[in-house]
Structure formats: structure tokens, C-alpha cells
Amino acid sequence: xxxxxxxxxxxxxxxxxxxxxxxxxxxxxxxxxxxxxxxxxxxxxxxxxxxxxxxxxxxxxxxxxxxxxxxxxxxxxxxxxxxxxxxxxxxxxxxxxxxxxxxxxxxxxxxxxxxxxxxxxxxxxxxxxxxxxxxxxxxxxxxxxxxxxxxxxxxxxxxxxxxxxxxxxxxxxxxxxxxxxxxxxxxxxxxxxxxxxxxxxxxxxxxxxxxxxxxxxxxxxxxxxxxxxxxxxxxxxxxxxxxxxxxxxxxxxxxxxxxxxxxxxxxxxxxxxxxxxxxxxxxxxxxxxxxxxxxxxxxxxxxxxxxxxxxxxxxxxxxxxxxxxxxxxxxxxxxxxxxxxxxxxxxxxxxxxxxxxxxxxxxxxxxxxxxxxxxxxxxxxxxxxxxxxxxxxxxxxxxxxxxxxxxxx
Amino acid sequence: xxxxxxxxxxxxxxxxxxxxxxxxxxxxxxxxxxxxxxxxxxxxxxxxxxxxxxxxxxxxxxxxxxxxxxxxxxxxxxxxxxxxxxxxxxxxxxxxxxxxxxxxxxxxxxxxxxxxxxxxxxxxxxxxxxxxxxxxxxxxxxxxxxxxxxxxxxxxxxxxxxxxxxxxxxxxxxxxxxxxxxxxxxxxxxxxxxxxxxxxxxxxxxxxxxxxxxxxxxxxxxxxxxxxxxxxxxxxxxxxxxxxxxxxxxxxxxxxxxxxxxxxxxxxxxxxxxxxxxxxxxxxxxxxxxxxxxxxxxxxxxxxxxxxxxxxxxxxxxxxxxxxxxxxxxxxxxxxxxxxxxxxxxxxxxxxxxxxxxxxxxxxxxxxxxxxxxxxxxxxxxxxxxxxxxxxxxxxxxxxxxxxxxxxxxxxxxxxxxxxxxxxxxxxxx
Lengths: 409, 430
Fold this sequence. Notes:
- Chain A contains 16 helices and eleven strands.
- By secondary structure, chain A is of the alpha/beta class.
- In chain A, helix 6 (about 130-140) links the parallel strand 2 and strand 3 (about 140-145).
- The longest helix of chain A is centred in the first third of the chain and has 22 residues, at about 35-55.
- The model of chain A is unreliable at about 1-25 (pLDDT under 50).
- By secondary structure, chain B is α/β, with parallel strands linked by helices.
- Chain B has three domains: about 1-155, Immunoglobulin-like (Sandwich), CATH 2.60.40; about 190-220, no CATH class; about 225-425, 3-Layer(aba) Sandwich (Rossmann fold).
- Chain B has twelve helices and 19 strands.
- Chain B has helices spanning about 5-15, 15-20, 25-45, 165-175, 205-210, 245-265, 290-300, 315-320, 340-350, 365-370, 375-400, 415-425; strands at about 1-5, 50-55, 60, 65-75, 80-90, 100-105, 110-115, 120-135, 140-155, 190-195, 215-220, 225-235, 240, 245, 270-275, 280-285, 325-330, 355-360, 405-410.
- In chain B, strand 15 and strand 16 form a beta hairpin.
- Chain B is elongated, with a radius of gyration of 33 Å.
- At the A-B interface, helix 1, helix 11, strand 11, helix 12 and helix 13 of A face strand 1, helix 1, helix 2, strand 5 and strand 8 of B.
- Strand 11 of chain A pairs parallel with strand 13 (about 240) of chain B.
């Protein structure tokens, strides 16, 4: 009750009505008055700022197999090693940039003899047939990581998907005559795809297809596993050897991870925006502006609110009701019975004119005589000791009836 | 600054050129035009720094009545003031038309009348006035809040006034102004008069009869010029609401009726409201109308959430009256621990004064005590029984000390207290 007291007992004249002061109050005083909200606002602003900074900070890239991703599923390790070995690794994320990077790489190479490699990891199949073929034409050597059937068909050749590495196989041996796999030795085979080709390497068993497939002229290489290149697994078995030999064959390496921007929309149907007349674009924003103006119009209050010092008012019967609930919760049948009995005896004594000091036995006798009954009958009611709640209810009603009878006669 | 609905409509009509020539250039142009209209209208609106406010207050008003507060707005500037004025009364003042449109030409003044229908007793305040001055196009307005404090005192309603005529008649019967003069109605010797058939033979003054040929009887009248001290408890227990009325308000009604009655009965009345310090004081010793002083003293009373300091009460009463008085304590019988506060103080006061304790009984307790259909109701009945027994015990103890106890339901308390006063006066116990 203490805060209520403070807020009500103080006369209204002593408090400054908020906002009435015309003279500008000190900023510090304002902050002190709104300390909680200022703190909450500061924390919120700080949180927003940190989130924005975290989002905008450069170099962070959590795409799988990205050369800027140092997470277990990234490929920063392999790209750094390649860079240290003199390979110029350049990552791109859209088709136009890739093409220009490939052209520049061609220009760099003086001899023009198989010096550009393109690594393509199209996780979601964004590229269409035409784009894939253009890429193939622009590069000397194309390394495709876990391609789909559509991509492989577009790239030509006879390499086809052939399922996944069976469960329980953790490493695979080269088992083929190609130079790179043969030198690299066993590699990680977990969660890898298999490809059928003329000369598949790393076959789990004969005829199933291999994790590493290469076209006849060696210009198209298919790697069936992202694990080989990932930061987490690069140092296991012959993973690093295979990755570095496959990707480090030329001086220029373009690392292409296609994004949503590469999806061609040329053949999509016309959108609603294109069909609508030009003024429709202005309708919404203008109506929004009008709505904001309407809010300003209605929201501007005509002066500050006026403080109403409300007096404290408590329902008087609350204390009795609270005590009743306490009795009920504690199953205080005895206590309740004693109260009811005492109340009845006091009233009976008054009705029967026995005075306030009358003994209960005297009241019982007097009531019996008054009603023309035996003492046992009235004392049976007045001296009963109810044990349970149902008995208490029954007995309370009996008491009430007795009292009414005495009053009535 | 504020904008009007008219400006919003204007912005909406701006949609037409934007639709006809859908281009960002058009949008910019229309926006610029709107801004220009807004600024132009704002710049030619009257300056609110040159507004003089003057308030005429109605003074006092009773709770059920209404009053008019007049605000005079003077425009000392050079431009016409087209204003919306809000006289900011607190909500319970019940201002019926606090917002008004006012057109004040330069150098003139206009009056604004606000009708107040107060919903609460006490001092109701209006701390400030807000003005909104529109330009001639009524597109935009300057707004300013000017401090202009005003207050109106709402007096207690004195509903128990309706009991006054009947109680006064009873009092006059005692006083002998009515036809019958009965022995025993008062103890103060009044006069001698001739015996009339029907007079009590015991009142015959034999000595006077011996001096004259006719039989002479003595008449008595009730004592006059006795002191009545009314104490109203404004401590935390006064905040309790009984039958839709706080105990404090019931106490005020009872105190008003008793005070007016006692004053007509020729006694001196003093009133004070007390919890830990005196919250209000009035008495017939000071100049002016007693009822007016009482309602002025009672109007701002509010229950304070603190315990009543009983130890100070005898001192307060001694300050008011050094002689034997009728001390009326308007305080609850069941407020926490009466054994510690009320009982010892009442005993101490009863040695010197005649003490009456007037208390409000909660009719809800009686209802609770009779409902016995379910277990929950029986427990409620037991709790109510307990509360009633405690009250009863305190009342019995008080009566044993010679203190009169008036215990009645809210609407019955004022007449019951008045009856107690008349009874005591008739018995000559004042």
C-alpha cells in the first residue's frame, strides 16, 4: 500500500504537471525522470547497431565451399593453399562476373594453353543449359562439384549421376589409371555422390560408378564430394592432394558459386506490376502519405493530460471475505463452527434476555424451555461438533433454523 | 504545431494530379505545394505569445450542483486569433464543454464559459489552458499550453439535511417551545408557572405556591451552551467503502447533521478531522456561519493511508474544550486493534467527558452471515460472524466504560447519531 500512499497523499499542487512547463527543462532532469525508458532505448539501439554491424561486416560469408568461409563447411583452407602455391584464386557469385573473370584470366595467360580452371558448385541448380555451355566454352578446364543430371547433360560428355556412396564406406581407394587420383590415394567418401563415366575413379565396387570422373580429354572433371574441399576434412587421407592437383593445374582459378541472381527470368510470364498502368505505383505510397497525415492530425493532443488524484477506496467487507477464504483453504471447520456457535449463542442470549454474561448451558436450557423441547434436543444442535465440510454446512443450516424458531416464538 | 483535417483532405485531393501525370516529378511538385500551403497558413496564424488569459472561478459548488468557470482570452497581437481552446480541468470536474472554437479579432477579448458538473468532493483543479491558433485557411495551427491555474472547491452534498426538520422538531419539544412542557425534559430550572390540570404533581413548587394563592409548578428546560466536540477519523480505515460510500463520507454526513442540530440546540460545536495531524477544523466560536465553515473544512478531506494516533486525541480535545463536553468520535469499531487505540483512549476521555463513539456497520456482513447454502458460504458466514462478534465485544467494553455507542448502517448513521444527541440532551447528561 505504500506506493499508493505516496501517489495519493501528496497534494496535487506540489507536483509539477508534466509537460506544462514552457521553459525547456534541463536534459539531465528529463533523462533522470525517464531513466528506465532511456536505458531500455539505449540497450535496444545498441542491439540494433551491433546486428547491423555484424550483417554489414565484409568478408563474412557462410555459404558452403566459399573461399571466404572459415567454418568447417567452407573452403578457405584450400583456396589459401592454392594461393600460396601461386594460383590466382578469384571467387565470383554471378554469371556476368564469372565471364569477365574468365576473360581477364585468358588475357593474363600469355601462351593461352590450358591455364584457366573454373570450379563450379551450383548447389541449387540456378544455371540453365545455355549458361553452362557458355561457361564451358570460356574456360580451359571445368571442375564441377556434385552436379545434377541436367547440368551434366548440358555440359555434354558421357558422365552421368549414379547414386550415392553406400552406407558404412568411409574411404575409397582410387583404383583407376588417372594420374591425379592415383597420386592422391584414398579420400574421404562420406556423403558423396557417385558418377558413371568411361573411367570413373574411387569406385566403392565394380560398376557402381565413382566419386571422381573425368571426360576423355580431361577438360571436364566431376567431383562427387564437397567434403574433399571443406576446411573440416581437407587434412584427412588424400583429400588435400586430390583437391590441390585437380584445382591447381593452371595458374588461374575462378571459383564460381552461382547465386539467386543467376536465375534467368526471360521466359517468366508478365507480372502484375508490368500489366498495371503506371499510376498504380504511385497510388499506394500517396495513400500511405495521406494516412500518415491523418494520424498526425488525429494524434496531436490538445495539450497535456491533467492529473487526477484519485482517493483510495477499499471495499470494507474484503477483510471478512479474506478471512473466509483462509478458513476455507485451511479447512478450518472447527474454527468456523466455533464462530457460528458463538454468534448464535450471543444472539439467543439477547433474544431470551439472559444478559451478556450468560453461560452457554443456561442459554441451551432457556432455548429448550422457550421452544418447549427437551434440553437434549437443543444441546444436540448447539453443542454439535461438525467434522467435515458437508457436516458443517448441514449444521450451520440447523443453527440458523433454531435461531429463526426462537425468534419467531 | 498541428495540422487540421482540412489539410489531410487537401493532401488526398493531391492524388488527382499524381494519378493524371504519374511521375516522381509530379509527386515532388504536389508535395512542395502542400508544404508551401502549410507554411503559408502557419506563418499568418496569430502568435500565441501575445495571448492574455484571465480566469473567473465560481468558488464553491455542492457535489450535485453545477458551476460555470469563465475564461477570458485577450488577443494583444496584430492578427486575428482563430483558435480552438481547451480549458484543461481534471476529469472529475466534469467539464461539459472544455473545447471551444473562439474567434478573437486583434486587440479584443472574448469570454469562454465552461460548465462544470463535479463528480467528486474536494478541490478540483485546472492547471493549464491549451490554445491552437489556425491560419486563415485553417490548414495548420500553432499550439501552445499556457499555465493558468484554477480550482473549484466542491463541498460535501449534506444529503442528511432531509433528516434535519424532524430532528429539530424533537429538539424543540425538549426545549419547551412546543405546546407541552414535561417534567424531566431537561434538568435546568427554567421558570414557574400556574398549575394546569395534567401537570405532574411532583413538579409543584410548594414554596412559591405558599407565597401566592394559586398552585405553581416549576418547569425545566434542557441545558444550553454545552460543548460538542466532533472528531472525524481520516486514517486508513476511513478509506473503506461500505454500501457504495466511503466511511469518511458517511462520517461527514453524520457530523454535519449533528453539528447543525447541536447549534440549533444552543450548544457550541467544534469539529476537527484527525489522523496523525489535524486535517481540518471548524467551530461555532469563530465568526460566520457554522455550516459554511464546516463544509469548507470538510471539502478537501481525503482518507490518509496511515494509522490514527490515538495518543494525541485527548490533547487535541483539551485544546478545543477544557470543560466537560460531549465528545463524538466518528471512528470504526473494527479498525485493526481497538484494544490498543480506541478502548484506552475512550476510557481516559470518559473520565472527563461524555463520549459517543459513532461507527458505520457494514450491511454486507449481515447478508454474509445469513447465507449458508454451500461450504464457501458457510465459511463466509463464519468469518462475518467473527467480525460481528469482535465489533460486539468492543461495543460492550465501551458501554461498560460509560461510553455511548452508535452503531448503524451508512444511511442510518446520521439520524441515529442525532437521536443519540437528543436522548442525551433530554436526559440532561451533557
